[in-house]
Amino acid sequence: MSDLFRSDNVVVRSVPASDLSRWVVTFDNYGIGHGFDRPGFGEEFLRNAGVSAIHVMGVREDWYQYPEMAAAMQAVRQATAGAERVMTYGSSMGGYAALRFADAAGANAALAISPQYSIDPNKVPFEQRWIQDSRRIRWLPEIDGQLTCSVSPVVVFDPVGHDGLQGALIQRDIEIRPVRLPYVSHPATTYLGEVGLLQSLVLQTLSGELDVGAFNRKARQARRRSGLYIANLAQAQPDYRQSLAVSLARLSVERAPGNPLAGSTLALILSKAGEHRTAVAEIERVVAMTQNDPNYLIHYVNILVAADQPHAALPWAREVVKAWPHMAHLRAWESSVLWSVSEREEAIASVQMAIGLDPADRKYRRLLKSYQRQIAGARRVEVKRSIRRWVSGLIRGESPSAS
């Protein structure tokens, strides 16, 4: 293992195997971690598979908008010169990079799972999933401009929702070999891993042996044994099909009791249906299973609040914010829990932190104003009550100070 390139923003790390004729160049997904003291995307799997890998690691979730990326990709080209196969690979943010940097890396294959075309709000105003980062990042036209890719990449995505819109934009610019898997959600890596198809997809794309049509059929057929797929179907049900949603969610847990996504989906749907006691029990099972994973603690807090247990929810909300202190929407979310238990000053402090983290988002300022109006209204009510008590005391001949 050695670093081929290093800057304050980017590290290019080589992890060669005995076979140097094939290389996979990976890019981090969103949330893999900050800094460089960590494994690269897919590092353990590729090492165990005996595949030489180069891991391109960004210091944080900046969507690789770094001016030194050209130099970083030149280091990749030099390290893989003469190799028979070079494949870029990534999921979500990493899928974005796998497409954007395939040519610069000298790749002759690319695999992008649930990629974005862009998250620049000026280009994709529908995309809100990473809005705090998208407004923060300075988008570089040489990286985030019109997409070019001389290879025909394999692109796996759920055509339902925003990933479908992103996929359409990708296909507007380049020719792809699509694998469309409805209701597997984002990222599709989770589903492919659940049904045991992720490793074969990576290795067959690398070798050039992937039959995209056959893989697409096989991946769709595998949905019948997927708890995640059934859970996503449950979530997609409209309100008037609430009983069907509950039935599907229960089935998803029966199929995959060890899948926390299925369990959390069941808990959320039960909560929405007003079955609060059962919902709390199910989400507590998931939280225990995942050892207090903050992703599931968010659901736990929301379900406890819906069950009218905000005091029980507050410590867990604080745990979530402790794990991700830089996320503005979580600060605002914490403030709502604080407000529900009458922790007014802390609630205002939390929403002020949200404003500081993402000043462009007006909803945080609206929330702060709402708190301030409620406090002002409560004070007016209290003043009126004090005056009434004072006047009543005068009428009874009591001292005004007694009020």
TrEMBL record:
Keyword Hydrolase included in the entry's annotation: yes
Molecular-function GO term, any one: hydrolase activity
Keywords on record: Hydrolase
Protein's recorded name: Alpha/beta hydrolase
